[in-house]
């Protein structure tokens, strides 16, 4: 599933591509379009929910098929614990996000 996700929508004064241009690009390529802001949280949950729903719908309709060994959609993975531990990484912050 591919979607055009415009980010940093909270920085209106720095905008290079208008909403209309983004929508037109997405539409011309048969993609969905949504604007987001990690800073304010605007549309973040909606973005993941919409893309997840589109993938689910395509699986249900048979348009996408889950199969092991493919890097796209997988049926799951085995793990020895009931929890998934994320590796801690140093992240350099510059005041953004």
TrEMBL record:
It comes from the Eukaryota. SMART domains: RAB. Gene3D superfamilies: P-loop containing nucleotide triphosphate hydrolases. One of its GO terms (molecular function) is GTP binding. Pfam families: Ras (PF00071). Signal peptide: none annotated. This is Ras-related protein Rab-39B. The lineage of its organism: Eukaryota, Metazoa, Ecdysozoa, Arthropoda, Chelicerata.
């Amino acid at each position: 599933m591919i979607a055009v996700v415009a980010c940093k929508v909270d920085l209106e004064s720095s905008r290079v591509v208008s909403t209309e241009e983004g929508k037109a690009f997405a539409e011309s390529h048969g993609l969905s379009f949504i604007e987001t802001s990690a800073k304010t949280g605007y549309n973040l949950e909606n973005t993941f929910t919409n893309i997840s729903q589109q993938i689910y719908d395509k699986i249900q309709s048979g348009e996408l098929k889950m199969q092991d060994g493919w890097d796209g959609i997988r049926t799951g993975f085995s793990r020895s614990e009931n929890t998934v531990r994320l590796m801690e990484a140093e992240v350099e912050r510059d005041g953004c996000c």
